[in-house]
Amino acid sequence: MGVTKSDLFTETQNELANYAKVLAHPARIAIIQFLLKTNTCCNSTLVEDLGLAQATISQHLKELKNVGIIQGTVEGVSVNYCINPEKWHYIKKMLSDLFDGYDPTYCSNC
Amino acid sequence: MGVTKSDLFTETQNELANYAKVLAHPARIAIIQFLLKTNTCCNSTLVEDLGLAQATISQHLKELKNVGIIQGTVEGVSVNYCINPEKWHYIKKMLSDLFDGYDPTYCSNC
DNA sequence: TATTTTTATCGTAATATTGCAATGTAATAT
DNA sequence: ATATTACATTGCAATATTACGATAAAAATA
What we know:
2 copies of one chain form a homodimer.
Chain A: H1 11-23, H2 26-38, H3 43-50, H4 54-66, E1 70-75, E2 78-83, H5 85-99
Antiparallel strand pairs in A: 1-2
The structure holds a DNA duplex.
């Protein structure tokens, strides 16, 4: 049906899935990596750098902002985007908690 | 269009996005967490545990298997799934490389 | 004021994802 | 041989995502 049955899952499961979803597009990964390098960027810079249309970049930025991984501050005509440090570390922790939860020494059949 | 312009991005960006995509559904997170707890599971166990239809679980398992995060071994009538340790650590490293790439002390405007 | 620059939003088309009933398949049990 | 059990696959409907042109809004500039 295309609609996820969120009510079947825990809050953590839905939350993790939502964070993963925002990372699940190369353009958004590229935007994040760009920010890791330059610390700040605006829509027009990304349009040049990524080669996607302005409306498309704007949409990706919106999704990143919606989950809180980036934040934007109006700077005259343009908007400066940067990583939200608190959210960044929160997501980082959720993911490492998940990935640290596996100990292969307990596995007998693989 | 619904189609990602993969050719605009680096291999790493596409790869990261693909791994994120497979984590971008609470059912698949739930399956992984189930495996972290029990180390092994089969389709029917998950159908009981998650409350999704057998065909749906089968589809989610297929996606997890396609990116290599889990592997299945036929055990008589049923199929035992478990985490693929190499892939697990590979994905874990890719994600931590991304998330370790941020140093808030360099950021002046947030 | 008119123009330019930058971004957001709307509308739309193409494609992808989610979920499940129905059906197919393969191994085991009766 | 037939039935049962466990999964995979197919086909379909509903919804979500991706991409972008067109347009709107808001600030800076001529």
